[in-house]
């Protein structure tokens, strides 16, 4: 797709063509038929959104095998003014590719993105004994580097379908160590408008602890536990100003327009010196949380009405 079209129509993704991120972008209905811009890293993708070069960017935020993607979490904490407006799940599997004429027994060095290498390491240890690993900037870049005039690796870990883009030979398929591996991608935009609640939503925030003392993390988590809110992700990342200082990337079940979630965010705001709201958006899996009656919207509204009646001098409705 052309990269010269109007910036307001463009979507950025970690490229080049053939990456899992591109596969995730194909799931974004709004991006269909629009120009897509290939970028080299998460920071560049978010900068495209902030600068207006792109209306949105798809970035990986979590993997079912390796957990949170630290580069994305750190970038979201560092770059203000962006919101998550959607999430997409992409099954992850890999193939081992090489130049034509290379046999599996010939492989001594393997080019692979660090995350891809971590997810195929067991297979490689068994089938490519004693191999060396050369890190690549992306899964597709790992394969593309094999076609350099003087490649530094004998083979590469790459996504299925890579041979549609590069003239390489597949030495082995389905080499992932976990057949159920899934990567979660998010669509990030500059828009402040919230997607409407669907009943199957997530809310993402970044929270810093006010001080390093016994029970500080428990104090933060109580903001959710006392309101019946489940966390789908809790990941710690160093703030970077001194040792022992961490921020927490958190996914909550529910939408900010749900009374229990809104009340929890108010509690977080009182508790923490810095709370970054990343967005409320529909869950990709469509799962609706089970909310006990005491944490329902009606329960919060009734409790407020009860207190309002007391404050205004009305009889206690009991």
What would you say this structure looks like, in words?
This protein is α/β, with parallel strands linked by helices. The protein has three domains: 1-91 and 181-193, Periplasmic binding protein-like II (D-Maltodextrin-Binding Protein, domain 2, 3-Layer(aba) Sandwich), CATH 3.40.190; 95-172, D-Maltodextrin-Binding Protein, domain 2, CATH 3.40.190; 194-318, 2-Layer Sandwich (Alpha-Beta Plaits). The chain is 26% helix and 28% strand. It contains eight helices and 15 strands. It has helices spanning 20-25, 42-51, 70-78, 114-127, 139-144, 216-225, 259-271, 297-311, and strands at residues 11-14, 36-39, 56-63, 67-68, 83-91, 95-98, 109-112, 132-135, 155-158, 169-172, 182-189, 201-208, 231-238, 246-253, 274-282. The strands form three sheets. Strands 1, 2, 3, 4, 5 and 11 form a six-stranded mixed beta sheet that branches. A five-stranded mixed beta sheet has the order 8-7-9-6-10. The chain has a four-stranded antiparallel beta sheet with strand order 13-14-12-15, with helices on both faces. β7 (109-112), α4 and β8 (132-135) form a beta-alpha-beta unit. α6 (216-225) runs antiparallel to α7. It is elongated. The N and C termini lie far apart (64 Å). The mean pLDDT is 91.
């Amino acid at each position: 797709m052309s990269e010269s079209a109007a910036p307001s129509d463009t979507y950025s993704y970690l490229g080049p063509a053939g990456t899992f991120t591109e596969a995730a972008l194909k799931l974004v209905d709004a991006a269909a038929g629009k120009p897509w811009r290939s970028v080299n890293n998460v920071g560049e993708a978010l900068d495209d959104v902030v600068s207006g070069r792109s209306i949105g960017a798809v970035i990986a935020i979590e993997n079912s095998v390796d957990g949170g993607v630290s580069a994305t979490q750190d970038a979201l904490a560092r770059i203000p003014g962006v919101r998550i407006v959607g999430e997409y799940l992409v099954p992850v599997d890999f193939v081992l590719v090489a130049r034509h004429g290379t046999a599996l027994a010939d492989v001594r060095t393997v080019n692979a993105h660090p995350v891809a290498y971590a997810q195929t390491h067991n297979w490689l240890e068994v089938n490519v004994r004693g191999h060396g690993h050369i890190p690549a900037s992306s899964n597709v870049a790992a394969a593309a580097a094999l076609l350099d005039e003087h490649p530094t690796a004998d083979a590469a870990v790459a996504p299925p379908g890579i041979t549609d883009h590069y003239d390489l030979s597949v030495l082995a398929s389905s080499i992932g160590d976990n057949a159920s591996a899934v990567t979660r991608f998010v669509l990030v935009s500059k828009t402040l408008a919230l997607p409407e609640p669907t009943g199957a939503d997530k809310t993402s925030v970044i929270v810093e602890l006010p001080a390093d003392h016994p029970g500080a993390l428990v104090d933060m988590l109580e903001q959710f536990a006392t309101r019946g809110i489940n966390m789908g992700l809790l990941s710690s990342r160093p703030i970077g100003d001194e040792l022992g200082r961490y921020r927490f990337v958190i996914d909550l079940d529910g939408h900010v327009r749900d009374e229990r979630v809104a009340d929890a965010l108010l509690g977080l705001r009182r508790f923490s010196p810095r709370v970054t709201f990343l967005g409320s958006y529909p869950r990709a899996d469509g799962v609706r949380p089970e909310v006990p009656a005491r944490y329902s919207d009606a329960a919060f509204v009734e409790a407020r009405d009860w207190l309002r009646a007391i404050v205004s001098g009305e009889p206690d409705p009991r």
